[in-house]
Amino acid sequence: MTFRDICFDLNGYKGKKALDVGCATGLFLEYMSDRQWDIEGTDISAEMVEEAVKKGLRAWVGDVFSVNDKRYHLITLWDVLEHLLQPKESLIKINSLLEPGGGLIIQTPCRGIIADGYGAGWRHFIPPQHVHIFSQQGLFDLLIKTGFRTVNWVSFGSGCTTGTTNPETKTVFDKVAKTLGIGDTIVVWAQKVKMDNVT
């Protein structure tokens, strides 16, 4: 559904090289391997990488800064950016790993009216695990500064965690948040527009 929301054609990357940063146990690797992507993953957790490898997936322990001799057509960060101590430097490094015109997909919590409304009770306010949480505009600005242009995006989530609000109310709130583009989670599809050595 997320790929449909951002009008991203999964078939367009069949056989192309992709990297999932923060791959954990390989859920996305498995999903895309079944669709004939040439995908591998990296994660700082040796235990999670071990689980991914047990499934026959290509994964290794490390982060984007440990990659030097590879280039990719697409790099994904599913709920990873908020954990990074150096988000700007990480995106600059990712830019250098992408082929010209390569793609980047980020899913991350998003500050805004919902986060402000919940305050310290916001579901994504989880210090110290979540180090950096950007607003929509803050994330778009960061992508520009690191050599990307936003192709498309979607935000979703009303802040109502399953089980804390009755299902009918949650469905309505979630639909309103997504329709108005004020959700507390954002997915951005961006494209590399600058060459390496972005500063």
How would you characterize this protein structure?
The chain has 199 residues and is α/β, with parallel strands linked by helices. The chain has a domain of 130 residues: Vaccinia Virus protein VP39 (Rossmann fold, 3-Layer(aba) Sandwich), CATH 3.40.50. The chain is built from 7 helices and 8 strands. It starts with a helix and ends in a 7-residue tail after the last strand.
Question: Which features would summarize this protein structure in a list?
Answer:
single chain, 199 residues, alpha/beta, Rossmann fold, eight-stranded mixed β-sheet, 8 strands, 31% helix
Largest β-sheet summary = 8 strands, mixed
Label the overall shape: globular
| Overall average residue pLDDT | 92
What is the succession of H and E elements? HEHEHEEHEHEHEHE
Termini Cα gap: 34 Å
CATH superfamily membership of the domain at 63-192: Vaccinia Virus protein VP39
Q: Could you give the topology of this structure?
A:
Blueprint: H1 2-5, E1 17-21, H2 27-33, E2 38-43, H3 46-54, E3 59-61, E4 72-78, H4 87-97, E5 98-111, H5 113-118, E6 134-135, H6 136-145, E7 148-156, H7 167-180, E8 185-192
Parallel strand pairs: 1-2, 1-4, 2-3, 4-5, 5-6
Antiparallel strand pairs: 5-8, 7-8
Would you kindly provide a brief summary of this structure?
The protein is α/β, with parallel strands linked by helices and 199 residues long. It contains seven helices and eight strands, in the order H-E-H-E-H-E-E-H-E-H-E-H-E-H-E.
